[in-house]
Protein 1
Amino acid sequence: MGMKMRRVPIAKVIGTIIAAGILIFGALVYKLLFGGIPEVHNSSRQYGNWENFAGYSGFKIFPRDISKESIREYYYRSQDTIFSPEAQVFLEAVFEKDAFEQEVERLSHICMSDGKETNLVLEDNRHFPADAYICEYNWNHCYEYALVFPEALKINYIFLQNIDAADAAFEDSLLPEGYGEESEENPYCLYAFGTGKNVIWYE
């Protein structure tokens, strides 16, 4: 006796196709708007793993060579969106005295050049809770800076882009004065060159 083929109602087939299409479309829209799942690191072993970074930084303020023993706290989060990336990086490090002095020396000499002009790291102790070395300040919602605490031989390295103060991965006492109240006055970016400072160089 032959097997009878069961017919699936055409309306059910069409409904399944439409539902699948809606799910796929929704996933694409979510990825465009929110960038999908953010990339998050919170282990010192992951420090420097920034290949998929979506923000606007060349990470000049952050040390390239640092012993894992010096790292006390590390947090990294990066997420691209259709409007502008959201990112934050926080590194707290404590050094031996000689290494601390060498690191402060490095910070004080950070610069970038496009071959025509040279941008220098800024130093500020009025708008920050400690002596600060600054690569980005109030520039396109970006801040990149290091806070130096000589008595503790400690340095906090921070990058923020489109991050509300309440969402920072560290205490808000480490934020610059007036953070979140950005204006068009005195923005600075170590990486910006040219007329209107709209040519960006990352190394």
Protein 2
Amino acid sequence: MDKKIEKNWQTIPAFLSCAGNNLNILEEEVDLSLQKEYFEIIRELSSKPQKYKQLCSQYLEEINNLFDESIDNEVKKEC
């Protein structure tokens, strides 16, 4: 194994111990199309501050719907 790669692998335990409870590892794979949608939304919000303020206000009104499993994910995205 390349020495640089080996050294990087050796630093992982130290990194994990520093992160403590602040580190979350996904147990499930995130769909690539969903990731793409997320980054497109972020890009749009960063270029339109008014849209961001509007969505923040709407988020506070709709927060409970995000965790309601009876509501379809596509409907949640539109909210």
Protein 3
Amino acid sequence: MKKLIKILSLLLIFTMTCTLFFACKKDEDKDDKDDKDSYSTPNKDPQQAESALKAAGYDVMLADGDLADMAATILEVDNVEAMLSASKGDVALEIIYFDDADAAKKNFETIKKSMEEAEADTEVKISDNMVYYGTKEAIKATYPQETQDKDETKKS
């Protein structure tokens, strides 16, 4: 009986060690995917996105407060916290920041329908409390350059 307990104990220790080893193993494919998609959504802070876009050479207009409310009325949406428009040549981006994620979800279809009616050649997306549309290059530019540089050195 004592031999059986010793064997079961060793088997249990071996199993737990293997479980721990494989649970802590770095998933390199997942990390590569995260690096590629790290700028797939705009910066969540309108002021940081504005300053990063200006530093990247974009013409930027950030509307908040009453100006954002007026623009929201034109777009027929509500609960808007801020709106950011940026362009540089053919590269453009529009981000609408809502008060919360529920408001963004509620207004997403309205914005998408407006873009379809305008026959705009862009895809409308939603992330947390933002609805945005624009080019990937412009979305990446909403992050400060030093953050982008750090990510580039990590990939090397």
Protein 4
Amino acid sequence: MSKAFFSPVKMHAVTVHAISLSVERWPPEGSPSLSIEVNHSVEEQAPALERDSYVATVRLEVTFSVGDRGVGSRSANGSIVLGGNISVPKSLSADEASRAIELNGVALLYSYARAKIADLSALSPMGRFDLPTIDPKEYIRQAHADEHE
């Protein structure tokens, strides 16, 4: 089997810096509503893991709250902060490498965050809770647009 489907983007050393989940009341009274906030940062070049790669540290924070629509009270809330080193080949230009690290870092770390929140919530009175998927390209586009406002 060909290995041409493997990505040249690599994620190294993922670390969960903080994770929390608080369930105040479950299930919500009435129709539940979800509020979610995602923030990320890309730190400059991390120490080289490989001589032929660009490497940077991506940090992601996801905060969410599940409430009662129309009632205004909160049923559960949580957050996770994590980071990881992302590397891409030096065959890319510096600009392409920067974009690839940011996009793939957000996509990979958000997927990791979703899994950790699902695992933690499964042990709570609320049962397994899955954060919604995101479109990482659109998220980054909006994040950059917000920076310029």
